[in-house]
TrEMBL record:
GO terms for cellular component: nucleus. Keywords: NADP. Belongs to the NmrA-type oxidoreductase family. Residues 1-283 form the NmrA-like domain. It comes from the Eukaryota. PANTHER family: NITROGEN METABOLITE REPRESSION PROTEIN NMRA FAMILY MEMBER, NMRA-LIKE DOMAIN-CONTAINING PROTEIN. This is NmrA-like domain-containing protein.
Length: 315
């Protein structure tokens, strides 16, 4: 009998990757949750044989109904869409509330065997209070909530996913053309030697992690899986992008204050994250007292390189 895997945010980057990893495998039946079941992305999921269900992360009852009968649930929240109309403190509260609803619905789902929570490291604790990254903090609070429900914690895989290649498209992380110099610049408030852990194209590179997480649950439940494809310095990452486009690109140091003046709350959301990585390096993806599993621990193969991720990517 096939196992029902329910995917929150099925039309988003992570959700599409989870579905792509499992679709066509008769061991699994797929249910995708979305706010808009009439969208073209939802229709595409139906064509792939995915059951599409409408659900609202702010509505616990709708999530409980949507999770019914699931063997596993993939939980994720994507707060960046909230930034346009809300301040960071509000976004953090909304994302935490969404995550708590997902976790609570999972805890109340009879027969659920596996819950995967997409989260991030505890930047505030790791940095000794220097970095309060709202999208990290909200997910961390949900993790605390999950760990407070013994029956749910024991069946949860906590999933760290590294940097998406498409983040080079967003404001304070973007790469800007300088036509008069026939070159591009990356305005960076972090050092060029900052180590960046990349997942690259998450729709491609998250896929190879999904079956190992589900099928090696004796390893992953209760632990953290860190999904990344490679680690490159910020400078080397920029040059990999430049080479893929056949252009020149330069890392231009600027102050955190200037970045904040230019991009406001988006600077806190994105540029602050890269400064955190620059200051704390390898430690920034740590989890003191917890087991972290990587691609090597799970035998993950088939990842594409950062260069390959950039090949068809346009800023």
């Amino acid at each position: 009998m096939s196992k029902l895997i329910t995917v929150v945010g099925a039309t988003g980057n992570q959700g599409r990757a989870v579905i792509a990893a499992l679709v066509g495998d008769t061991n699994y039946t797929l249910r995708g949750l979305t706010r808009n079941p009439a969208s073209s992305a939802s229709q595409e999921l139906r064509r792939q044989g995915v059951e599409v269900v409408e659900a609202d992360l702010a509505n616990l009852a709708s999530l409980k109904a949507a999770f019914a009968g699931s063997y596993a649930v993939y939980g994720v929240t994507a707060p960046i869409e909230l930034l346009a109309d809300n301040e960071m403190a509000t976004v953090e509260k909304i994302e935490e509330a969404w995550g708590r609803n997902i976790a609570q619905a999972a805890a109340e789902t009879g027969g659920l065997q596996h819950f995967i929570w997409s989260t991030l490291p505890r930047a505030f604790e790791i940095s000794g209070g220097r970095y309060h990254l709202s999208h990290f903090a909200s997910k961390n609070k949900v993790e605390d909530y999950i760990r407070g429900i013994a029956g749910l914690a024991a069946k949860t895989t906590f999933l760290f996913i590294a940097q998406y290649h498409i983040n080079y498209s967003f404001g304070p992380l973007s790469i800007y053309p300088i036509p008069s110099a026939n070159a591009y610049v990356h305005l960076a408030s972090h050092p060029p030697e900052t180590p960046i852990a990349w997942i690259g194209d998450v729709t491609r590179n998250l896929q190879p992690f999904i079956k190992p997480i589900l099928e090696q649950s004796h390893k992953t439940k209760g632990n953290i899986v860190f999904a990344y494809s490679e680690v490159q310095t910020s400078e080397d990452s920029l040059q990999i992008w430049a080479k893929s486009k056949g252009v020149r690109a330069f890392h231009v140091p600027v102050s955190a204050e200037l970045v904040s003046t230019l991009w406001g709350k988006y600077a806190d959301f994105l540029a602050g994250m890269w400064r955190y990585w620059g200051e704390f390096g390898e430690k920034s993806w740590s989890a003191p007292g917890r087991t972290i599993l990587t691609k090597d621990d799970l035998g993950v193969t088939g990842l594409i390189s950062l260069a390959e991720s950039f090949k068809n990517f346009e800023i």
